[in-house]
Amino acid sequence: MFTDVPLLSLIIWVPIIGGIICMFAGDDRKATRARCIALLTAFINLLLCVPLYLGFDKSTSNMQFIENIDWIAKFGVHYQLGVDGISVLMVILSTITTFLVVIASWRPIKKNVAQYMAAFLIMQGMMVGVFESLDAILFYVFWEGMLIPMYLCIGMWGGARRTYASIKFFLYTFLGSALMLIAILYLRTKTTDFNILSFYSVQLTMTEQVYIFIAFLLAFAVKIPMWPVHTWLPDAHTEAPAGGSVVLAALMLKMGIYGILRFSMPITPDASQHLAGLMIVLSLIAIVYIAVVAVGQTDMKRLIAYSSVAHMGFTTLACFVIYKIVAKTGDLHDAYLTLEGGMVQMLSHAFSTGAMFLGVGVLYERLHSREINAFGGVAHKMPLFAALFMLFALANVGLPGTSGFVGEFLIILGSFKASYVITLFAATTLVLSATYTLWMYKRVFFGKVMTQGVEDMHDLEMPEYTVLFILAFLVIFIGVYPNALLSVFHTSIGHLLELSTTSKL
Amino acid sequence: MELLKTLTLLIITAPLLGAAAAGLFCRHVSRTFAHRLTITLMGISFILSVYVAYLVINNNWTYDGVLYLWGQSGNLTLNVGFLIDRLTACMLVTVTFVSFLVHIYSIGYMQEDGGYQRFFAYISLFTFFMLMLITGNNFLQLFFGWEGVGLASYLLIGFWFDRESANQGSLKAFLVNRVGDFGFVVGIAGVLNYFGSLDYATVFAAVPHVAALAPNLPGTHWSAITAIGFFLFVGAMAKSAQMPLHVWLPESMEGPTPISALIHAATMVTAGVFMVARLSPLYQYTPSMQSFILIIGATGALFTGLIAIVQNDIKRVVAYSTLSQLGYMMAAAGVSAYAASIFHLMTHAAFKALLFLGAGSVIIAMHHDQDLRHMGGLRKHMPITYITFLIGTLALCAIPPFSGFYSKDSIIDAVHYSQISGASYAYGCVVLGSFVTAFYSFRALFLAFHGEERMDDHTKHHLKESPWVVWLPLVLLAIPSVFQGYFMIEPMLFSSNPVLGNSITVLPQNNVLALMAEEFHGSFQMIIRDLTSLPLCFALLGALSAWYAYMKRPGLPALCVQRFKLLYFILIHKYGFDDFNDLVFVRGGQRTAKLMYKGDSTIIDGFFVNGTGRVIEWFSSTSRRMQTGYIYHYAFVMVLGLIVLLGWLMF
């Protein structure tokens, strides 16, 4: 019944238009009006996801809800949208995240509220555009376009070193993606248009594949971020406002992995196979080394940022370990486990890390500090918050029954097929993540109340606990019944695996 | 059989419901409501468990089925499901019984605490996880319960979270357990890799075939099955506090005493023993792991017991005694006497919970002073606590006819009969262990309940027996501590249709219990037969020595400390495990983290990233200086360029 409605376009443009309206809502004296417009827009967008999810056919790996309009016909650029099992969840995730961020920013943001809300809504539309684009140029436009609102978000509403962080963020990610455009243009010379799906059937020699792979990788690795191009993230996270950190962690990083799944693996399968060993090593360095770095942090946001890099290491591991598995067993079915684990990891990381950043935001709002040592005994003053934060900390630790467990467990389990050595390294996360997360928790929440600042803290308010309760529900739901996610992308992952392991030589 | 599924579901959800109600609404429900609700639900859970045990053991029912599909990926299907067999039934009754009594006891012990409702929520939550652990029919659920009880234990050790020592203890407990879980996860991954499934039934059926192929880990000479067994056992070593991963258990005593009884004595710490018994079809095929388990267990049984001798905190004495008893259980599992191991697990659950709760009762009377040196003569003031504590002590020391005698002597016998490598060393350890056990147990008993009253006057005037909610569980636990062994040894170990039946697997060549059955002629005859046996003599000697050293000649211990300084030094430092961990892992780890962060921020970020930025900055500021704006500069450069170009073209 929704076949005639351009649902995917609506999900992109409703927030962007809503954002533009919001921008003109007026100055801070009319902040409430801006907030309401933002909330309404985000809510409408959330509602639009309902027919998207219900109308989505899980049994096929084909693109669905396709829209195709000529854009720049001369060069074969189309405005072409579509979703499969992988992207549909990313779209829904973006929508939920933005909705939560709007609520969470209700009170903390008091300066330039209309512009802040507008930035997030426009960012939301662009990100959805990234996940829905079937045209490489369209993808590129959205991909680069969303840097602007995020740059403004860090630069305007950020912390003390916001200028440094925002410029670093912008240059890092922008330079990373410059080569991607060249790769896209090169691929265009081999086909008639910029359709990503038609890139899949392009025959490429090994040399070509390696160059294209590296060109894409630079863009994606910076976004994910992979070790050693991760250093923009701690700065960006630390300086960004809480909402910005959430969007960064929950969505922007995922765009990198999404790119690997959508471009690198199916377009350059042989290069991926060839370089899989290197990628696995880089992933394991992120998992082990970055986790150790996280232990030594004194700033809560920086700690969570490093933990985020370590957790994202699992997703890249999941992507590239499949080549080793298939090489070893020859059975594609063995590779499902890690790749699907990687997908779950992407989604669950959004919720748990997002929630942790919001939690730090809640603390910052009260004490105006992110230093672990400034706190202590918070559980006495904020018992409800302490309980919720404990849940998210446990999800970060990967405790069974929370979302954080599912992805890591499947990846650790599956990677044994490639080599038990990978499993051994990957499994260190059990110890390391518990160390940095719970040690931080102990220092912040437990102990006696030592300072007047903590003494004056009050427990969660309405917008805060609404958001955290929704996230808590999601974290537990995915942990207890991950099949709700697995079944959505199962068919698409199967198709992707086939594409990514079929040689083009 | 669907009935079993429904019953199990009820048994498991009852505590979860209680935990949710008391925990989520802890500020909106009254204290009375919180404990009434959780206790009622625990009671239901216990009664249903007994019914399930009756159905399983008497009517010979088993249930192995799926509750819901957790996830599906490739060829792998991961379900949440139950396996209700005889082993599970025994565990169900043990866990719910102790948990029920501990719930009641907590009314008395926690009555003045501000976090009353939270406490009840936590212990109910713990029970839920523990029940999930024992009822699962696959490794996934085992791991869920495994980590879940770890979480509950972490929350409860750190229950009084304004105390630094409690926070240290809880974090340490969680992290050490996580080291174990690291092994456990790797083991599970190995199981999936070599057996293609995580369901017990499929895996166990595949073990003999895989064992016949004898695969090695790729690139090594290690047998894959032994490696899997080893990694899984690392998990058990942490959870069941086996050396060298035992370090967290003594510090777990920072939690309230009821949870020490429930979690750190009766149930959670025995999860590792349960796991080895549950995975007996796997461990039967790896002799080297059997020896390993035996040696680890027996070593722990003796050497952790020795530490208990020098402890002055009553709870720590009982804690080290728990470590030692867990060593006995593991040793039994090592020699394939799984039935004896589970039997000791069950008797130990009762008498050790009794000892902990008894210690708790003493602590209440002493106004939360736990130091044995400040006690003495309590038996006159607390007769019920004294008698029940005495019963617990006798059971622990394996004095006939108390329950511990039957279970522990069976273990010692089983080790004696075993032929696997390391058995003679292990036998030495477990026999010497009975002397040590009796010595430290009676030492604690004498110091607390006998002799002169050493407490201050204020405490002395207020000494009184604890309220009925505290002593009733003691009495109820004392009953099995007296009778359980006498009546259960035959059905558990030596009957033709033993209680555990086919829920455990023992290969014929490892069946030590069959050898022992030939010598067994009834519970009473066993007492007569063992009157002159080595373990009993050692136990009596231990008790006598304790009496001599602490009652007859109270100056003797101090003299011994003087004389055997080195030994005392080693024991008081617990063989240096804590110092080593502190130095290497805690401080070393922190330093490494700082160093690596420095590397990350100065080398990668500072040198490469910002270095690139600086180079560009330098380059552009240099090139900017060339844009002087003077026409004659530009003209000069143009002329110079022209000359160079012409020169290059001409030559």
Could you characterize what this model shows?
The complex is a heterodimer of chains A (505) and B (651). By secondary structure, chain A is mainly α. Chain A has a domain at 268-505. Chain A contains 22 helices and 2 strands. Chain A has helices at residues 7-23, 31-55, 85-104, 113-132, 136-145, 147-157, 162-188, 196-199, 206-223, 232-239, 242-267, 269-295, 300-329, 333-367, 378-381, 383-397, 403-415, 420-427, 429-445, 452-455, 462-480, 483-501, and strands spanning 64-72, 77-83. A two-stranded antiparallel ribbon of chain A has the order 1-2. In chain A, strand 1 (64-72) and strand 2 (77-83) form a beta hairpin. The longest helix of chain A has 35 residues, at 333-367. The mean pLDDT of chain A is 88. By secondary structure, chain B is mainly alpha-helical. Chain B has 3 domains: 1-137; 138-572, no CATH class; 578-650. In chain B, 74% of the residues lie in helices and 3% in strands. Chain B is built from 27 helices and 2 strands. Chain B has helices at residues 2-24, 31-58, 86-109, 116-135, 139-157, 164-195, 200-213, 224-239, 248-251, 257-266, 271-278, 280-283, 287-309, 314-334, 338-365, 383-396, 403-417, 423-449, 457-461, 468-494, 512-519, 523-530, 534-552, 556-563, 565-572, 577-626, 631-650, and strands at residues 63-73, 76-84. Chain B has a two-stranded antiparallel ribbon with strand order 1-2. In chain B, helix 14 (314-334) runs antiparallel to helix 18, helix 17 (403-417) packs parallel to helix 20 and helix 18 (423-449) runs parallel beside helix 23. The radius of gyration of chain B is 30 Å and the shape is globular. The model of chain B has no long low-confidence stretch (mean pLDDT 86). The interface between A and B is large, with 61 and 54 residues.
